Amino acid sequence: MVTFLNIVIAGLLLGGLYALIAMGLSLQYGVARVANFSHGEFIMLGGMITWTLYTGFGVNPLLCLAVCGPLTFILGFILHRTVFKRLFASSASPAVFESNSVLASFALLFIIQNVASIGWGTQQHGYTYLRITVNLWGAKFGANRLVTLGFAIIIGLAFYLFVTRTRMGKAIRASAQDAATAGLMGVNIDMVLGLCFALGAAMAGMAGVLISMYYPIQVVMGQEYTVIAMIVVVLGGLGSIPGSFIGGFLLGLVGSVVTYLDPGLSLVAYYFIFILLLLVKPTGIMGR
Amino acid sequence: MNAIRFDLKKVWGPVLLLILFLLLAALPRIRPGYTVVLVYTILMYIILTMSWVLFSGPTGYLSLAPAAFFGIGIYTSAVLSMKLPLPLVICIGGLASSCVAFLVGALTLRLKGIYFAIFTFGLVELIKNFVLWYELKFNNTRGRFLIPVENNTIYYVMLAILVVLTITTLLIRRSKYGLALQSIGEDEEAAAHTGVNVTLLKVITFAISAVFIGAAGSIWAIRLTYIDPLIAFDINNSFMPVLMAIFGGTGQLYGPVLGAVVFSYLREVLITKFPYYYMLLIGIILLVAILYLPNGLAGLMEKLRKGALRGQHANP
What we know:
Shape of chain A: globular
CATH class of chain A: Mainly Alpha
Strand content of chain A: under 5%
Radius of gyration of chain A: 19 Å
Largest sheet of chain B: 2 strands, antiparallel
Distance between the termini of chain A: 38 Å
Number of domains of chain B: 2
Oligomer: heterodimer
Order of helices and strands of chain A: HHHHEEHHHHHHH
Strand order of the largest sheet of chain A: 1-2
Number of strands of chain B: 2
Order of helices and strands of chain B: HHHHHEHHHHEHHHHH
């Protein structure tokens, strides 16, 4: 029973992170139409900045959320303004823009990763924060992991409320359905698309902060998270925010079960689920 | 006048190609040493890029699987190179990749657009993790060593693969299969309605393109002499062919080759001169190319040529 509880809670802890990462990517692809292969690099940036601030200046990692979020948001917004907006204007059709933006995101991946490796080196970094054991009905977990889950859920919910309850959120949803028509209805489309890309980057950055509290981080860590984020996004249904949330927790649970059996196989298992899903229901759990 | 020029063009193409290959074959005698290494590295990238274009060019499916096929070739070579003669190892490497491509293709080529790109991107990560897990668990090793062979041997094998690939590409383009592939890229549904067996054609072409990538991987493994899953399944081997093809421009036949030559040379120079900044520089070059050269180098050249021609007509 305790083993079972262990696996389930570990799965939820992992799933919270996955959900957060995937929601960011879902927003970037679902609204801004950028299949961002450099998504993981923003996660890496968040983790690395947190490591520097905590080990160098003693800044509380939770406070780093308030630093890395805005930083990656601004970076994302600038990138959208300078790169993706231009591409959007020069591409003949949405399909051409989609493949062009994939290529541009490779270029960004190279650039961000190289700049980061100049700054932080290629070795692993890590720090200890809140490594207190908490006993949950017999299952033992580090307090840092529970804090991570809590913040992932808070950020996810705040984001969901923003999209469903605010005026700006309405503009985002309208743009996701039909960007051209939304523009005709008075939505500042450049602003909305830029905002979506930036929000996606910010969520990746904040996820990076949370990841660094528990996992060791290094400059090349991004790729694995990009793959996971893409699997979750497809699992939940492209562009569906609740779908990403559910998909994230589902994949987290699967990952936790497989890690219990053999830690080396977790990514293989994710991929197996991904293949099954694509064969059975390619539109995802919440897809239309 | 026009007819004669057209005929000349028809003859000149193969003749030029033949001269080029003969020159390449003579290269180790003329300039031995580092030049050979540099040129076979460039040849390797040409093979990757041409193989990628063979499938993704006409059909429009963005495949990020080259690194997976390349890595399968590398591992075939690592396992077999001490037991079997080299040509056989390379053939097996190509066939093994092709089999995997066939399976993957049969499973996933019904997926459209971005799904296929995501799937193939993840495939590389999947096989890498699986091989790493397998090696650690059952062989208690992380990497493997290979017995090095002479540089000239590697060079000639690369050249041979390229020659076969070039012939295959030309044959496919000139046959009705090439036309059918093109029609898939333009409108898949219409192609299916005109009687093209869309899925079969895609899967077979995908498998053919993997043969050459796998073969190139098996000979590249011997040049590396030490391999582990992280080296063998480096995702950059998926990105590079795509980027080289786009950089060269897929509108023209020679575009991808031009892109591969220029880009891989640039890459070698940047790696040796700026080992710590080369990815940054490559990223910037790419970004500029995507933003300002939408049709690649070949597109730029065509534009310049047309501009020059127009100039001639304007001033008789």
